[in-house]
Structure formats: structure tokens, C-alpha cells
Design brief:
By secondary structure, this protein is α+β, with helices and mostly antiparallel strands. The chain has four helices and eight strands, in the order αβαβββββββαα. It has a two-stranded antiparallel ribbon. It is elongated and about 150 Å long.
Length: 332
């Protein structure tokens, strides 16, 4: 009979289909559909799909979106500002109701610092380029910068603790950037309060020829054109510290006063000598010149005349003797 002979291939076909269905169910249960199915019987003949190279992704330039302005009332802005100032400076600011309240538009922006560079050759401010428009000079390190760049590491230490909250800068319109002056009530009725000021010493110099006050900062008399000399009186006077005159004065024309010279080697001042144009100076012209106390150099023509300077007062001999006696008593 032919029926048993035909059953063999049919049973093999059914077993192959069942095996394929079982394999598909196992793959679907794993949840990975990208894996390639591998069959033991067709592993040599079946090749996997060709790998495709991923296309390069081109980054699109970021488009800045303009911020939309927020609508606020002017009174809200003033109230917020007054509140922050009151919290920082512990003051009470009353709102001003003189202006009409209206709606305004406001855009919140980050704080930016504008830096200006000036050409050090022609003092022209640079624009967007690094080349000066006037003289064509290329910007260099000598060109000043405003604001001045702070040195590295200044104000940055580990011990400094950052303040909590926002730091609010006081506006100059309210007058809070300056320290308030110290005042006291005026004894006069309806008088302005008295403001405390730093005491200053006003120095006045008078011309010794015409007795005219010198203008502040000037060394020439406006009346007789006399150059301010050591004989021009000073108010208040300081003859103990400046017996020979004050710094910046020219030498006096009075020949009756003695003259001081300075050693050109060690700058030590010689003892006072009579004026060379006086009678005593002419008679002592042939005498031996004095020697320097410090370097033993005799006075010569190269030794200049000593300029007026501050003189340290000599110690009191009585005080010096008492101090010497006390030191001698301590020596055991």
C-alpha cells in the first residue's frame, strides 16, 4: 500500500513547522525583536543583514528667543525697591504718591559689564575693533582699560563666607551711598544744624617787602613780584622746627644773618658761618675752613649752601644728665 510510504515526509514537515513556531514564541517572550534568528540547519547558508552606517547628525544653531516683556505697575516696582532698601539699611522709606500710577513693561536681563579701552597714543576710545580709528595703533597692553582689571586671587579666600541672599546696591538718588554727616542743633533760633567737619590748618604767608598775603599755591608776590624767601613770615609760625626757613623758600638777601653749608660728600651740615658779603665774612676769608664732623672733610667750593629743612631740637642737658645717672645706678 502507498499510504504508509507517504506519511513520512508529512510528519517531518509538521515537526519543522512546530519547531519554527516554538522558536518564534521564545524570541517574542524575550522582548528583543532586533536580534537575529539563528537556525542550526541553515546557519552556514543564511547571512545576517548588512550593517548600515549611521548618518552624521548636524547640530542646528541655537536660535535666541526674544524675551517677552512683563507688564507691571510702577507702584509695584517702587514698593519692591523700597522694601529691599529698608531691609538692608534699616530705614523707613515712605512711598511717593506724586506721580500717577501706570502700567509699564519690564524685561529681566542679566547684569553686563561694559569695558572701555583707550589708545595710549592719541587718547581715543576704541570701538568694536582692536585698531584705533584716529592713529591706526593696534591695541596693546599699554592702552588703559576701564574699569581696571582686578589682580588674580584678590578677594578670593577660603575663609571668606559668601553673604546669604541677594546683595542690593544702594541707588545714589536716595543719597544712601555716602555716610550721613554728624550734626548738632544750632543754638540760634531757626538756624541750620551745625555740621561737624575735619579740622584744617590754614597756613598764610606774608611778603616781607610789601606785607601782602601770598596767593595759595603761589611762591611769587602778586603785588611786588618778590620770590618767597626765608624772611617772609608764616602764620602760624614754627621757628622751633624750621629755624633756618621753610622748605621751598629761596635764600634771604639779609647779609647780617649767618649761612649754613652742607658737605658734598656726606651731606652733613657745617656749623653756621658769617655771610660772605658781610664784614665778618670778608675778614674771615683767610681763616682755615671748618671740618665736617662726620667725614672730617674740610669745607671747599663744591660744598653747596644748605637748603631750609626741618631741624631736630637738641636734647635738654638736664634731662640727659638725669637719664645718664639712672643708667649708671642700674649697673651692678
Amino acid at each position: 500500500m502507498s499510504t504508509p510510504a507517504n506519511d513520512g515526509p508529512a510528519e517531518k514537515k509538521e515537526k519543522g513547522v512546530n519547531k519554527l513556531l516554538t522558536r518564534m514564541k521564545t524570541v517574542l517572550k524575550r522582548g528583543d525583536g532586533s536580534k537575529r534568528l539563528s537556525f542550526s540547519g541553515r546557519s552556514k547558508s543564511v547571512s545576517g543583514p548588512s550593517e548600515t552606517k549611521p548618518e552624521p547628525v548636524i547640530a542646528e544653531p541655537a536660535v535666541k528667543v526674544a524675551e517677552e516683556p512683563k507688564k507691571m505697575m510702577r507702584s509695584e516696582i517702587e514698593a519692591e525697591r523700597n522694601k529691599k532698601l529698608a531691609e538692608r539699611f534699616a530705614i523707613t522709606i515712605e512711598p511717593l504718591s506724586t506721580k500717577t500710577d501706570k502700567e509699564v513693561q519690564r524685561i529681566e536681563k542679566s547684569v553686563r559689564m561694559r569695558i572701555h579701552r583707550i589708545c595710549h597714543k592719541c587718547q581715543t576710545t576704541y570701538g568694536g575693533s582692536k585698531t584705533c580709528v584716529e592713529c591706526g595703533h593696534v591695541r596693546c597692553t599699554k592702552c588703559p582699560r576701564y574699569p581696571i582689571k582686578k589682580p588674580e586671587g584678590k578677594g578670593k579666600s577660603k575663609d571668606v563666607v559668601a553673604p546669604k541672599g541677594d546683595i542690593i546696591e544702594a541707588e545714589p538718588w536716595f543719597g544712601l551711598t555716602k555716610d550721613p554727616p554728624l550734626t548738632m542743633p544750632n543754638p540760634k533760633p531757626n538756624g541750620q544744624p551745625l555740621v561737624r567737619k575735619v579740622p584744617r590748618q590754614r597756613v598764610r604767608r606774608t611778603c616781607c617787602k610789601c606785607e601782602t598775603l601770598y596767593i595759595t599755591g603761589s611762591k611769587t608776590c602778586a603785588s611786588c613780584a618778590h620770590a618767597r624767601c626765608t624772611d617772609c613770615p608764616r602764620d602760624p609760625a614754627k621757628k622751633k622746627k624750621f629755624p633756618d626757613g621753610y622748605p621751598g623758600d629761596v635764600y634771604s638777601d639779609d647779609t647780617s644773618k649767618p649761612v649754613k653749608y652742607a658737605c658734598h660728600k656726606c651731606s652733613k651740615i657745617f656749623p653756621p658761618l658769617p655771610h660772605p658779603d658781610s664784614e665778618e665774612g670778608k675778614s674771615a676769608a683767610g681763616a682755615a675752613p671748618p671740618e665736617c664732623v662726620r667725614c672730617k672733610h674740610p669745607k671747599c667750593e663744591s660744598c653747596p649752601r644748605a637748603a631750609p629743612a626741618k631741624v631736630e631740637p637738641a636734647p635738654d642737658p638736664d634731662v640727659l644728665a638725669s637719664v645718664t645717672a639712672k643708667l649708671a645706678a642700674l649697673n651692678v
